[in-house]
Fold each of these.
Amino acid sequence: MIKLSRRRWVIISIIIAGLWSAYVLDLGPGSLSTGAGGLALAGEFFSHALQPALHYESPVPTGTTPILLRSLHAAGWTVAFTATAISLALVFGLSFGFAASTAWWSEDLTARDTAWRRILAAYVAPAVYGITRILINLMRSVHELLWAVLLLAAFGINHLSAAVAIAIPSAGTLAKIFSEMIDETPRDAALAMRDAGATPLQIYFIGLLPRALPDITAYTLYRFECALRTSAVLGFFGFPTLGFYIAAAFENLHYAEVWTYLYALFALVALVDWWSGKVRRSMLLWNQRQV
Amino acid sequence: MACNGARLLLRNVTVQYGTLTALDSVSMEVQAGEAVALVGPSGAGKTTLLKLFNGAVRPGAGEVCVDDRVLASLSPAELQRVRADTGFIYQDLNLIPNLRVIQNIVTGRFGRRSLFGSVVDVLFPASATTRNIYEVLVQVGIAEKLYQRTDSLSGGEQQRVAIARALYQQPRVLLCDEPVASVDPSRARAVLELLKKLSEENGLTLCVSLHNLELARELFPRLVAVREGRIMLDNRTDEITANEFTEIYRLTHASNDNHGGFRNNIPAIE
């Protein structure tokens, strides 16, 4: 019998699980070849990558917005939904993140002398913490597109449904990550503040939050990028984002138009990436200012 | 009165961390305006002793008084007021590294500020409520670093920020836990002299734990030698005999080999 270390067992289990799922899903090298038609379609699609449409591929009524302007508009809508959603998510993410962290109530930060403080620390705070954690997980476990389906069914196609559909899971994820970042922040300065007579709330908002702020900002920007992609895809439901035009052009087999909108999306993501990098760098450099 | 009118008082205080006795029935008294050095090897209980005076450590038995009041009898709000009156300088400084110097210093006075007021102080540290920060920084000699990020300062400068934070707090008692342990030995004397000078100028009661017996002897009028959780000797420095010094020195260094840093690793937080 060969003795294997625990790490090897983990690796072997992962490999076995991978092979088993490939077997169950009936995956093989042949799965991708659906015949000459499929390959031809893919070839046709990618052959237009270098020639995105600058004009519509079929005649359009006079007065129709030119395609380049339309992709710009669609990009604008994509950003608008994203910005609304992330703003909402940030407000709720920070609030729920506060409630879902232990830093504001854990016993080393709370004087537990009076009866009411004892009840707060022993029952109320852990209950708030636990309920918020469950809520956050419910928000996160349902995907944006599923929320969109639910909200569309309930409220019809309106802009708020789309923004809220993106905001709910984003807020859940932000809250989870924020609470963990704050709880993992070193408590040394917080204890110094407590020893100088600061209250737990002062300690939370000044001893801990600013220290976690660079990480919080970076993560929020990352979620902004994720939300941007989701916002584009929500066009499939009829919202005027890039996804709407991509789907329409694809259905009409106007591949060059598809590429125009795809390039607009690439440009948008690159722009946001450049901007978030700039913000992150400035957070690292904000100390350079001197009197 | 139970507290004898002392600024700081311990009466038969015992502190235990699990099965380990950090302080064993310790009694001492410090009057207002005194400057006291606590000496002894690491793990002797010096840090625990200092932390009793701001309620960071609570005694298992015995009484702790600050400003003529028994700490255990105070409500949380009263304890908070005592803490606001008690400055502490930590061996590890405990500053917020990514905030500016001035922002770290304003946190010293949060015991007297509302939540809103303290947020305003951090966002607008140059506002009217924080007027005398500059004076404090001049006192500790780093006025030009006011707006620098704290982690961009050298270790010695950061220590001055920690001192400035404690001074800005306007405490009545200043407790310093091994303030020169991580300072260049050649600068240790300057830091201790600064602490003494500032305490005298501001009328503070000063309690400093020190590893360096020679500096304690030279700079402090009263020495308290602690070893294995007990007070070995507590006297005016000029009344301590040469033999007693030799004894303190020997025991300090002998037990350092056996216990070095052992008790220091136990978090003294309740």
Amino acid sequence: MSFLTLTDVTKFYGANCVVDKMNLSVEKGEFVTLLGPSGCGKTTTLQMIAGFADVTEGQITLDGNDITHAKPNTRGLGIVFQSYALFPHMTVEENVGFGLEMRKVSQPARARQVADALALVHLEDYAKRYPRELSGGQRQRVALSRALVIEPPVLLLDEPLSNLDAKLREEMQFELRQIQRTVGTTTIMVTHDQTEAMSISDRVVVMQAGKITQIDQPYNLYENPQTKFISAFVGKANLLQGEIVRHENQLFIRINGEYFACPETHLPQGSQAFVSLRPEKIKLTPLHEGLLNGRIATRFFLGSQWLYQIETKAGLLQVVSSNSDTEPLQEQQETGLTWSTQSLRVLP
Amino acid sequence: MNPFKSNAPWLLSGPAIALFVALLLAPMLMTTILSFNVFDYNTGIKNTYTLEHYIAVFTDDYYYEVFWRTFWIAAVTTGICLAVGAPEAYILSRMKTPWRSIFLLIVLAPLLVSVVVRAFGWSLLLGPRGIFNQISLALGMGNVKILYTEWAVIIALVHVMLPFMIIPIWTSLQKLDLGVENAALSLAASPFTTLRRIVFPQVVPGILSGSLIVFGLSASALAIPGLLGGRRLKMVATVVYDEYLHELNWPLGATLALILLVANLIVMLSYNKILERNYQKTMGVA
Amino acid sequence: MNKNGPLALLFNGLVISFMLAPLVVVCLVAFTPGNTLTVPTTEFSLRWFKAVFKHSDFVTAFWNSLWLAIAAASLSTAIAIPSGLAITRYQFRGRDALNALFLSPLIVPHLVLGVALLRLFSLIGATGSFVWLILAHTLIVTPYVLRLIVAASSGMDRHCEDAALSLGASRITVFWRVTLPMILPGVTGGWLLAFINSFDEVTMSIFVTSPVTVTLPVRMYMYATESVDPLMAAVSALMVALTAGVMLILDRLYGLDKILVGEK
């Protein structure tokens, strides 16, 4: 049964539709991420769930209760803001304990719960510090612990990791997931970073221009993107365009005169189609031994991988190959490329 | 906070609005009306109306002289403040900490000392026992009379107004991207050319702002011409003072005060328009 | 050209001397043992300072100014806080006009304000009323407080208020526990700036004070136009000392250059 439900939720700013009839059901304990480029409406949706933005039309229900027009200080949700929004004039302890203070929890009980919450994020020793004395990552954890200590039904995260540097971000992604699993709180996160969304979430909700384009588990989203936009936005993809041709019960796609075996699709014979091919699904072979030949235009060393941009008859293809013990290819070198038919995704 | 409740901001500003309406807008209106009241030396302000005060001010040579003196003193003060303040602001901006803060503070701190004290201090310096006269006597140049001349008023006004010129210019300079200056230098522009063609145009809004403030404040100054101008050197403010507190001819005083206010506004608006048009042409919208 | 040459430093030195000269000379003359306005070189005396404290007119005027400044600063802060919050937190038609109205006492010459208020007071029988004098000073100093509060309020992270709300705080609690502490530097800096501006004010006060409510600067002005002796210097020196004290506190609390110049 859905724990948090959005039914036809719509938001207009003046004549501008920012969120368009959004429908979403989140299960208890789920970690759902709203993913999309800036302006897609994901933050506005979060603000409506939190109560900081009015809902123009539609309904939001939490555990069976209609909270659509409830004031933000009555919803009892835990929120972590992008800027962390820690109270600068209060210590870490006082920050984390604020929500409990508002709930009139007695001082000894408060102290205990705050200590537990800080222990959860490994900041027990920092209780008496002020936010200005903490690093970005530490502030983020204090913000998280402040939101969790009140045992909210839902935890809302607004781009919680975007202010951290790359390395710290990676670490925090795992920690965040771990904490969420330990505590089991239903969580909704907003981000524009797709690696973040994919690595932490149970389900990813891709949004564009106020609408949901796809909701899926990360793996499915990656492997079976429903639109051109999603396939390019989530992970890297080679987008090829060609004509569907059926020959002796076999399906092919003709790109620039070359025929490539193509997986089953409902698209009729002769129609133009887009296929997506992930760079890591293309294997390099000796010349003339693959489906296609190509010349390395540029190559990039990414540490664990080599990224090759290869000119072929089918266009400029990106190929990623892991930095194993085989000799990497040089620029201007010619090579063969191959992939399995099932790696091609025909976009509907 | 929710910006959607439309009554809250008006309720919050209510007390301040009440104060301002009662003590600013209403009195201004009353004074405007007052300027049209008839005044009789024997019976005081009467309830009939006339244009005679305005006519007197615009036709009598005495008032013309006073307004003209006020205007040129304010203009000279503004000019000197610009000539001294702009370079000083520039020099300060080039200093390193802590000197920069220290000197900035010394230059600006006199703002917080009452103008009476400052005017009095200048009367000491510029008077017969003051340092300037001592130097002049020591050099054998005889007594130099500065006090109770226009220049005493101008010097003291410059002292009071200089911070008002420096602050906006300083603010403009702070917003300057030093990289742009260095870029010009690296492209073989001389330091002077860089100043003239790169730095100066960006500081124009500060100069404009400072000039308007200084001019407006100088034209309406009371304490300084009162203490340093003596009985004969009248500026608009001191004439108003005389009319109100000695002659008791309030309507005439009100007329003068309002004309000063309007003249101020006109100068500000036209100066603003001219320079802004020039500025916008070269720099785009600030 | 990133360094100041010797010519520039000399220029700076001259400007600094110019700015300090009248204050220095006033403070020096205050210590003269004689009866004339000369800078004491061999002997220094406190006699004129003692004379100030015996001069009942000046003492009364001082207390008037002090209470007036405290009252005006407090009242203006009290009305500037909600107004400043209204201006920075809400988008509403007339916001810019309201902001301009509240800052207008900075542009209207104090001469004109003095004259206008004199007329008002005479019509409503408020001449000689200390309360109305307080209101007049409040009007004049409100822009100073408002500017600092608006700066502090726009500079703070608004999400802290949202966070407090989400944690269950009522609007009033959010104001007391989160907003006010976060804008406190602006509030206290504003109060002090308002205080000193009220204490110093002379041009408007000349018109709206009565012999009973006369303030220190007005008293000094009257005295200076009538007689010239070192008593005036001693009073002035004391005022400079008071101002310096307030400046020190302002600097400690807020940063004097930030207040005078504005936030960078």
